[in-house]
């Protein structure tokens, strides 16, 4: 890329407003004396609008696709579905830290490939649960994601 081209890109108005979502992915302990621990896993942001299309072939009914379904859902998405529907994704660090940038809208933050033979970043992506997230423009949002006995939850 030439310097002239780079400078012309910088001169363009920034029309896309991104919000930074950051937090930690943690295993939620159900034992009071054992602390929560970080998880190195795959965080996938799916547009809420596309969720029905993504899960069309899973066999779940519309009634089953409520909040409890999101917390405990387990289904696979192919690489083709990933390319078509995933708004952003990242693999959390060994300390569980993650960061994503998203535009304004309603999303599902899902955990995938945590306890499968497929490591994070490989397909099919096995979604083990999601939380709902409303993203407003140009805000930094702290969102921790927990996996435990209650499924995928947030705090």
Proportion of residues in helical segments:
10-25%
Shape: globular
Q: What is the CATH topology classification name?
A: Immunoglobulin-like
| Helical stretch tally | 4
Structural class: alpha+beta
Tally the beta strands.
Answer: 11
CATH architecture: Sandwich
Which CATH class applies here?
Answer: Mainly Beta
Classify the beta-strand content into a percent band.
Answer: 35-45%
Straight-line distance between termini: 43 Å
Major sheet description = 6 strands, mixed
List the helices and strands in order: HEEEHHEHEEEEEEE
Provide the domain count.
Answer: 1
Low-confidence stretches: 5-12
What is the CATH H-level superfamily? Answer: Immunoglobulins
How confident overall, as mean pLDDT? 80
Spatial extent as radius of gyration: 17 Å
Describe this structure in words.
The chain contains four helices and eleven strands, in the order αβββααβαβββββββ. The protein has 155 residues and is α+β, with helices and mostly antiparallel strands. It has one domain (17-154): Immunoglobulins (Immunoglobulin-like, Sandwich).
